[in-house]
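stage 2 :: seqdesign
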């Protein structure tokens, strides 16, 4: 089905095949579709499409098994559910994953197919360890575009809220505006950044953008910005306090820097991550600076570390270099 054969049905089973005999309009209700692979664009077209009255065949209800909803060559696999039609087009769509961890309900609207998405313990990528402990979202599907609004999900040990846009009208584009609360910083670093070993509760606001030909190429072109704030954590592979205490001309390798809070601004894309306006507080020690992580995890950065005593505050410039996860901190300019 489709101009490029992008949709197909492996089997169509009729519970009452004799309903096809005779003259006049035919109405089918007990239809089972197995191995359905349907493009999102054709699903969007069903909102305004007739259910077969033009050919004298009217479909009112169908059960789906082993179905897939496809967007730009990839999508949701292993779905089941039901679809209801009324005169003139789609009436209601219900989809669920085989383990029932994901459910999608669709109703026609004046703007397109209105979606309601809910998930519990849903693992979107079988080969990846990421799980949405819970997820709720409202969506709108139109030809070439899916908008998810009011996304509210428990993810990576914390909460993530925001809006997501997918556009496949020309290639594949994604845009997301997200607010993060209390995410596990170590797990988030594995997903969003370089191999940085860090612990703490992560919060902030993130903007993600990317344009590629398909899903396979999307991961390498994602770019974005993020205001971050971490609390009660530790940065592994770098000891800023020890470098400052040793003084000019001395350096330390590896170690850790514990902190009460760590704030800053991140920009990532093109295989590089840069951080600016970073401010770290850890009891009587604080630090301010910036850094850049390039290809292969190579790090360059500069900070000013302040150590406060009962009578004065000592400020020491500290240069950061090396490759993640173990870095060198050298005091002095």
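stage 2 :: out
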């Amino acid at each position: 089905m489709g101009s490029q054969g992008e949709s197909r049905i492996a089997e169509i089973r009729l519970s009452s095949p004799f309903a096809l005999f005779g003259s006049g309009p035919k109405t089918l209700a007990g239809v089972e579709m197995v191995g359905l692979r349907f493009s999102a664009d054709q699903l969007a077209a069903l909102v305004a499409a007739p259910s077969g009255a033009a050919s004298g065949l009217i479909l009112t209800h169908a059960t789906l098994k082993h179905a897939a909803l496809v967007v730009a060559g990839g999508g949701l696999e292993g779905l089941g559910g039901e679809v209801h039609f009324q005169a003139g087009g789609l009436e209601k769509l219900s989809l669920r994953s085989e383990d029932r961890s994901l459910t999608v309900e669709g109703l026609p609207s004046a703007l397109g197919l209105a979606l309601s998405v809910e998930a519990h313990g849903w693992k979107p990528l079988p080969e990846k360890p990421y799980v949405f402990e819970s997820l709720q979202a409202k969506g709108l599907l139109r030809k070439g575009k899916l908008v998810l609004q009011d996304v509210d999900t428990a993810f990576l040990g914390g909460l993530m809220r925001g809006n997501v846009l997918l556009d496949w009208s020309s290639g594949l584009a994604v845009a997301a505006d997200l607010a993060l609360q209390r995410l596990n910083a170590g797990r988030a670093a594995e997903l969003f950044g370089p191999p940085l070993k860090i612990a703490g509760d992560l919060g902030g606001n993130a903007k993600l953008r990317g344009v590629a030909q398909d899903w396979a190429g999307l991961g390498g072109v994602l770019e974005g910005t993020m205001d971050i704030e971490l609390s009660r954590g530790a940065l592994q592979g770098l000891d800023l306090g020890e470098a400052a205490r040793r003084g000019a001309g001395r350096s330390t390798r590896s170690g850790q820097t514990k902190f009460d809070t760590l704030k800053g601004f991140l920009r990532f894309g093109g295989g590089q991550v840069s951080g600016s306006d970073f401010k770290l507080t850890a009891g009587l020690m604080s630090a301010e600076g910036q850094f850049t992580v390039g290809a292969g995890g190579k790090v360059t950065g500069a900070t000013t570390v302040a150590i406060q005593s009962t009578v004065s505050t000592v400020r020491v410039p500290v240069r950061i270099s090396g490759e993640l996860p173990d870095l060198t901190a050298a005091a002095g300019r």
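stage 3 :: structure notes
- Helices lie at 40-45, 185-192, 215-218, 240-246.
- The chain has four helices and 22 strands.
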